Amino acid sequence: MRLFLFTALTMAAFAANSVLNRMALVQGDMTPVAFGTVRLMSGAMILTVLVAWQKRGFAFGGVTRILGVIALILYIFGFSIAYEALDPGMGALILFAVVQITMFGGAVISHEVMPKQRWLGAGLALAGLAWLLWPTGAVETSWLHVGLMVLAGIGWGVYSLLGRKAADALQATAMNFVGASIVAAVFLVFVDVGAGLSLQGVALAVVSGALMSGLGYALWYQILPELGASRAAVAQLSVPIIALAGGAVFLGEAVTMRFVVAAILVIVGVCVSLWRQ
């Protein structure tokens, strides 16, 4: 039960990031690069303070750290920039399909035990998500932005796979955020130097970075060793459902019967996958 509750809390934090991102870009007048940079910096600051306060020490080096920083950068900016041109539903479908493939591939390579019920749950949840998010009309596709979303999915999948080996979840997350925020600041200066920073947009980015990303990702790294790659992959299929529900509550978006049925399919699929035999 503890693992289930922590997983649900983490998925809610991930979904909140999507809602906060959309609010900042639409209502807060921020560019994706500016939002991502403030998000990473605020997460790095609160995590660094926590690591220093608990005297855990700082470990910046190592191949795993470099890979973690690269994966985090790919996810944060691939995700944000891709949504400039992609339909939200199609973007989410591409992202989480790629995350599934990446993490299931990692589970197979590492010889993780995956019972038939996990494959069944993953298939059911992914089918519900595809049915909800599949575009109903003609869609103009920007292959550049599709590619960016694919890179974001690979980045998040790899970042999650690396979390299974983190000896200290809080320290690992903090160091990843510090490294990624430095890269992001350089990226902002050279790519988006004229970006506007509204008070509302910055506030949303800080909440997203410090609370939902920084602390949320630390909790994610904490539970990943126990959760495993394949179950973690399936659990994340609930994120778009939670995000859409958050959009209905905070952004006034409509809730349709299609969403209700799809949500039931995804939740049942996730529960089947997470259930211990």
TrEMBL record:
Keyword Secreted: no
Keywords, in A-Z order: Membrane, Signal, Transmembrane, Transmembrane helix
A Pfam family assignment: EamA
Membrane topology, as annotated: Multi-pass membrane protein
Subcellular compartments: Membrane
GO cellular component, one term: membrane
Chief localization: membrane
Domain EamA: 5-133, 147-274
Signal peptide boundaries: 1-15
Chain ranges passing through the membrane: 31-53, 65-83, 89-107, 119-137, 143-162, 174-191, 197-220, 232-251, 257-275
Protein name from the UniProt record: DMT family transporter
